[in-house]
Design goal:
The chain contains 18 helices and 36 strands. With 962 residues, the chain is an alpha+beta fold. It has four domains: 188 residues, no CATH class; 158 residues, no CATH class; 155 residues, no CATH class; 179 residues, 60s Ribosomal Protein L30, Chain: A (2-Layer Sandwich).
C-alpha cells in the first residue's frame, strides 16, 4: 500500500508531467507549462492545474491550449460495467487559440509537419495496424462538464485578419456511453460575443452514431463569415444577424446518413447587401424569417410553411450607359468565373427529384427606389408600402399559385395586383388596380423626346387580365377593364405656355385580345379637355417644336425587311367631349392675336377598322362669347385610304378679333363685322372635293397700317364688289386637289381659294359683276358711241340698267366713267354734220345741191377760187380720153364737198361738249332712270385723244370703292 501510495501520489504525477511535456514537444515542438498535477490513487482521481502550451515564437503571449483545471474521477465499477467508467470529467477555463496562415494551414498543422519524425519501422507498424479494423474503446461517463471555455481563431487566409472569439463555452454531457445504443443527454451553451449565443441540448450516442435534440443559435454575425464565401458572389454582405432554431434527429446506420429537421426556423435580421464598387448598400432587409420547416434527407423533401420578409429597402440605379449598376458587377463576376460544364458521363446520370414546397411567401412594408442616371436630370421613382404574397409553390410549378401585390408609387393611393399564376406552362389570371399614379414620374423620359412638361395628372386602372403561353401561337391573353387619367395638365417648355389638359379622360370599358390583336372600346369620354395652338414669334407652330432633335450625327441604319404583322382591329363605339376648350394665339403679329373656343360638346360615334361605314361626327362649341362652331359629318381614319365627309361651320364670329391678321395681310384694321364660314371637305380615293362658303356681315375696314406682307390689291374695292346692299358678303370657295400629289398642301386651302377669288375680282371686277348678273363683261364695262354722236340704243340702255342694279346692290362701289373723243375723226364728223345742216340738201336734186355748194364755196373763198378749183380738177383728167361729163360732175361735187367740210369752223369746245353730252346721257340712265346713288357715279376728265374703232368709240368704265 505504501508503494502504491508512493507511486500514485508522487511518481505518477511527475511521470505524467514529463510525458505530456515530451509528447507536446516531440510532435509540435512547443513548450508546456504545468503548475501541478495531482493523482489520488485511492479515490482514483486525476487533477491537472493550470496547463498552458506555448509556441516558441518570440514575443508570442498566446497559448494555443490552456486550462486552469482538469479533473477526472474514475470509478471502480468499471469492473462491473465492463467499460472504463468515469463519474465526473470536468474542464475549467479551457482556452483554445488557433492561427490560420495565409496558405490556409493552421499553426498546429505547421507544427506537426515541422516536428514529425516517422521511421520506416513505424510506417510498417502503422501499415500493419491499418490492416486491423479499429475498435472504439468502451467508455462510460456519468457526467462531462466544461465550464467557462473560450476559443480564439485568427485567420489570415483571406488577405485580411479575421478574428473569431467564442466565450464563454459551457458544455454538459450526462450518461454518455460509447458502446450502448442509448446516448447521453447533453447541453452545450456558447457565448459568441455581444448578444450572440448557442444553446444545444439533446441526446447523443456513438454506437451507432445517433443524436436528437434541439438547438437555438441567436445573433450570429453572418457578415463576419462573408470573406469565406465572397469568392462565390459578386456582391458583399455588409451586415446580417442570423437566428437558427430547430428540432433535429440524425443517425449513421449501415453507412447511411439520416437527418430530419422539424420546427426549424431561420431568421436574418438587419441584412445589408452592397456592390463592392460602391460605398452604399443597395439592399436593406429588416427581417427574413423562414419557417417552420420540415426536412427529411432520406425521403428527400423539404417543406417550408412560411417565408416572411419585412421591410426590404432596395435601391436600383441605372447608370449613364443604360445598364443597372448592380448588374455590372454580376457580369464581371460571371465572365471571370471558371466554366462548370460537365464533360464526364456522371454529369448525365439522373438523380431522383428532391421534393420541396413553400406554403406562403410574404413581403411586408417594403420600398423600392429606382434612380435612372441615363436620362438628363436623373429620374427617380419610389415604390413604397409594398406588400406581396405568393402561395402554394412546389417543385412541379404546374399548380395554381395565388399571389397578391400591393404598393404605392410616389403620392399614389394603394395599387393592387392579385390573382393566380401557373409557372409551367405559363398562365396568369389576375386583377389589376392602379389608383391615382402621378403621371409626372415619366417627365425625365418625356423630356428626352419632347419639349413637354407634365404639370399634373394621375392614372387609374381597374381590370382583369388573362395571359397564357402557347407553344405554337405564342403569348395569348385578354384584358377587360377601364382606364382613367384625371386632372391632366401639360406645358410647352419652348414657349412656357399651357399645351394640353383635361379634367378627366375615361376609357370605359376597354377589351383587348392579343391573338389576334383586337381593341374594343365602348366609350372614350373627355371631360373639360383643353388644347392650345400657338404660332410663335418666328412663325412656327408650337406642336411642330415639341419633338426634341437627336444629337446623334450617325446615319440611321437601313432596316431589314421584316414580315409585317396584320393591323390590329380597333372598335371605338363613342368618343365624347364635354365642356371642352381650345385656345389659338399668334405671337408673330403686332399686336399679338389670341382667341378661344369654349363649350365644346359632342361625340364621334362608330369608329372601326373592320367596318366600311364611316363614323358619325357631331361636335358643337362657341367662339369667344357669342360665336358658334359646329363640326358634323363622317370620317373613317382606319380605312386603307382616308375617307371624310365633314362640314365645319363658324357662325357669327366677331371679326374685330382678327384685326392683327387684317393688318398683316390686308394693310387695314377691322372696324367691325361678323364671320360665318361653312367648310365642307370630302376626301375619297385620295381626292379632295371642298365646297366652302364665306359670309361677312357688316364688314368694315378701319385705318390703314404699315405692313410689308400686305397683299398689293385694292382690298376695299374687293369688299365693295362682294358686299350687297344689306352689307353682306357671300362668297363660294370651291377647293379641289389630289392628296397623292407631292405638291399638294392641305394647309390654308380656304385662304388660298379666297385670295384667288379676290385677285380675280379686283383684276377683272366687271367679269365678276357680269357673272353675278348673268351677262358678259364687255356689255358692262363700256358704252360704244357712234362718231360724233352722244346717243345710245336700247341694248345699251338695258346694259346700263343691269349695271345700275349691281351698283344699287353694292353701295360701297363707285363707278368711274371716262369719255373718249377721237379729236381727228370726230372733228371731221362734226364738220360733216355742220355742212349738212348749213346746206340742207335733203329736198334738192343733184344740180340744186351742186349750185348750193358752189354758192357757199364762192361766199367763203370767192369766185376766183371756185374757178381755180374746177380748172385744177379738169387739168387732172386724162388728156387721151374724152371727159365723161356725168362722172366729172360727181368728182367735182365730191371735191367741192370735201373742201367745204374743211372750211367748217369746229372748235375744241365742241368736242368737249360732245364728251359732256355722252356723260350726261350715261348718268341720266344710271342715276335718273335706274336710281343709282349720285355718290356712286363719277365722271372723269374726258379724253380728247381717244381712238375710234371703226365707226364707234368706247366710253370706258372703271370701279373703285368708297
Amino acid at each position: 500500500m505504501a508503494l502504491y501510495a508512493l507511486f500514485g501520489f508522487l511518481l505518477l504525477p511527475k511521470l505524467l508531467n514529463n510525458t505530456i511535456r515530451d509528447q507536446v514537444h516531440s510532435h509540435l515542438g512547443w513548450q508546456t507549462e504545468i503548475e501541478k498535477i495531482e493523482v489520488n490513487p485511492f479515490l482514483l482521481t486525476l487533477t491537472i492545474n493550470h496547463l498552458a502550451i506555448k509556441e516558441n515564437t518570440v514575443g508570442d503571449t498566446d497559448s494555443p491550449l490552456s486550462f486552469s483545471r482538469f479533473h477526472a474521477d474514475f470509478e471502480l465499477r468499471s469492473l462491473i460495467e465492463g467499460a472504463f467508467t468515469f463519474k465526473n470529467v470536468e474542464l475549467t477555463d479551457p482556452s483554445f487559440s488557433v492561427l490560420i496562415n495565409p496558405n490556409g494551414s493552421t499553426n498546429i498543422q505547421q507544427a506537426l509537419i515541422k516536428n514529425q519524425q516517422v521511421t520506416s519501422k513505424k510506417e510498417e507498424i502503422i501499415e500493419t495496424d491499418n490492416e486491423t479494423p479499429s475498435v472504439m474503446p468502451k467508455l462510460l461517463f456519468d457526467n462531462i462538464n466544461v465550464v467557462n471555455g473560450s476559443l480564439i481563431a485568427k485567420d489570415h487566409s483571406h488577405g485580411e485578419l479575421i478574428t473569431h472569439k467564442i466565450n464563454p463555452i459551457s458544455f454538459q454531457l450526462k450518461a454518455f456511453s460509447t458502446y450502448v445504443e442509448q446516448g447521453g443527454e447533453y447541453q452545450l451553451q456558447l457565448a459568441l460575443g455581444d448578444k450572440q449565443s448557442l444553446q444545444w441540448k439533446g441526446n447523443i450516442a456513438v454506437a451507432p452514431i445517433a443524436s436528437s435534440g434541439s438547438f437555438n443559435i441567436k445573433g450570429i454575425r453572418l457578415h463576419r463569415f462573408w470573406p469565406y464565401i465572397k469568392q462565390f458572389s459578386p456582391y458583399e454582405l455588409r451586415h446580417s444577424n442570423v437566428d437558427l432554431a430547430a428540432n433535429y434527429a440524425l443517425s449513421f446506420i449501415d453507412n447511411q446518413f439520416q437527418l430530419t429537421l422539424n420546427q426549424a426556423f431561420v431568421t436574418f435580421n438587419d441584412s445589408q447587401i452592397a456592390d463592392p464598387q460602391n460605398s452604399d448598400h443597395f439592399v436593406d432587409i429588416k427581417k427574413i424569417k423562414v419557417g417552420p420547416t420540415e426536412f427529411n434527407l432520406v425521403e428527400q423533401f423539404v417543406a417550408i410553411r412560411n417565408i416572411e420578409i419585412d421591410n426590404i429597402g432596395l435601391d436600383l440605379v441605372r447608370g449613364k450607359n443604360g445598364e443597372l449598376e448592380l448588374l455590372q458587377s454580376l457580369t464581371a463576376f460571371t465572365n471571370s468565373a471558371p466554366s462548370t460544364t460537365e464533360t464526364s458521363d456522371t454529369a448525365e446520370e439522373k438523380t431522383s427529384p428532391f421534393l420541396w414546397s413553400i406554403d406562403n411567401i410574404n413581403i411586408n412594408n417594403s420600398t423600392l427606389q429606382i434612380t435612372d442616371k441615363a436620362v438628363t436630370g436623373v429620374a427617380s421613382i419610389k415604390l413604397h408600402d409594398i406588400n406581396a404574397s405568393l402561395s402554394a409553390l412546389n417543385q412541379s410549378l404546374s399548380n395554381k399559385q395565388p399571389f397578391s401585390l400591393s404598393y404605392k408609387i410616389e403620392s399614389s393611393q394603394q395599387n393592387n395586383f392579385s390573382g393566380e399564376l401557373i409557372a409551367q406552362p405559363f398562365s396568369l389570371d389576375s386583377n389589376i388596380k392602379l389608383a391615382q399614379i402621378p403621371i409626372n414620374i415619366i417627365q425625365p423620359y418625356l423630356a428626352e423626346a419632347a419639349n413637354i412638361s407634365i404639370k399634373s395628372g394621375h392614372l387609374s386602372l381597374d381590370g382583369n387580365s388573362k395571359l397564357a403561353l402557347d407553344a405554337s401561337k405564342g403569348l395569348m391573353g385578354t384584358f377587360d377593364g377601364q382606364i382613367d387619367i384625371a386632372e391632366f395638365d401639360s406645358e410647352d417648355t419652348v414657349n412656357n405656355r399651357r399645351l394640353l389638359g383635361w379634367k378627366k379622360l375615361s376609357v370605359t370599358p376597354i377589351k383587348i385580345n392579343l391573338s389576334p390583336l383586337t381593341i374594343n372600346i365602348n366609350e372614350i369620354a373627355l371631360d373639360k379637355p383643353y388644347s392650345r395652338l400657338i404660332i410663335t414669334e418666328d412663325r412656327k407652330v408650337n406642336f411642330s417644336q415639341l419633338m426634341v432633335e437627336s444629337s446623334s450625327n450617325s446615319k440611321p441604319e437601313k432596316k431589314s425587311e421584316a414580315v409585317t404583322s396584320p393591323s390590329p382591329e380597333i372598335e371605338i363605339a363613342k368618343i365624347s367631349f364635354k365642356d371642352g376648350d381650345a385656345y389659338f394665339a399668334d405671337l408673330s403679329l403686332i399686336p399679338q392675336f389670341g382667341t378661344s373656343i369654349q363649350q365644346l360638346n359632342g361625340a364621334i360615334k362608330g369608329l372601326s377598322s373592320s367596318k366600311k361605314q364611316a363614323a358619325d361626327v357631331n361636335i358643337n362649341g362657341s367662339v369667344e362669347e357669342y360665336g358658334k362652331v359646329a363640326v358634323q359629318g363622317e370620317i373613317n381614319p382606319f380605312s386603307d385610304q382616308l375617307y371624310t365627309d365633314m362640314s365645319v361651320t363658324f357662325d357669327k364670329i366677331e371679326l374685330t378679333t382678327l384685326t392683327p391678321y387684317a393688318g398683316r395681310y390686308a394693310g387695314y384694321v377691322i372696324d367691325k363685322g361678323k364671320l360665318t364660314l361653312d367648310l365642307n371637305y370630302k376626301i375619297s380615293d385620295g381626292l379632295l372635293d371642298g365646297k366652302n362658303r364665306l359670309i361677312l356681315d357688316q364688314f368694315e375696314l378701319g385705318e390703314q397700317v404699315e405692313s410689308k406682307e400686305s397683299v398689293d390689291l385694292p382690298i376695299k374695292l374687293a369688299l365693295a364688289l362682294f358686299k350687297d346692299s344689306k352689307g353682306v358678303i357671300d362668297i363660294s370657295l370651291p377647293t379641289k386637289g389630289d392628296l397623292n400629289s407631292p405638291d399638294f398642301e392641305i394647309g390654308g386651302l380656304v385662304m388660298k381659294a379666297l385670295t384667288n377669288v379676290i385677285t380675280k375680282a379686283v383684276t377683272s371686277p366687271f367679269s365678276l359683276l357680269a357673272s353675278l348678273a348673268g351677262g358678259d363683261e364687255q356689255s358692262l364695262n363700256s358704252v360704244a358711241f357712234e362718231l360724233g354722236s352722244a346717243s345710245i340704243n336700247n341694248e345699251q340702255k338695258n346694259n346700263l340698267k343691269t349695271l345700275a342694279s349691281l351698283l344699287v346692290e353694292r353701295p360701297e362701289l363707285i363707278l368711274e366713267l371716262r369719255v373718249n373723243v377721237d379729236s381727228k375723226q370726230e372733228k371731221l364728223k362734226l364738220q360733216q354734220q355742220a355742212l349738212a345742216k348749213q346746206l340742207d340738201l335733203s329736198n334738192k336734186d343733184e344740180q340744186q345741191q351742186l349750185n348750193a355748194m358752189e354758192s357757199l364755196y364762192s361766199d367763203k373763198k370767192g369766185e376766183k377760187a371756185l374757178k381755180t378749183l374746177k380748172q385744177q380738177l379738169l387739168a387732172a383728167q386724162d388728156e387721151q380720153q374724152k371727159v365723161d361729163e356725168k362722172q366729172f360732175q360727181q368728182q367735182y361735187q365730191q371735191v367741192l364737198s370735201d373742201q367745204l367740210v374743211i372750211l367748217q369752223p369746229i372748235e375744241t369746245l365742241q368736242l368737249s361738249e360732245l364728251a359732256q353730252q355722252r356723260i350726261s346721257i350715261i348718268k341720266n340712265e344710271l342715276i335718273t332712270i335706274n336710281k343709282v346713288d349720285n355718290q356712286q357715279v363719277f365722271a372723269l376728265q374726258p379724253s380728247l385723244t381717244g381712238s375710234a374703232e371703226g365707226s364707234v368709240i368706247n366710253t370706258i368704265f372703271s370701279l373703285t370703292s368708297k
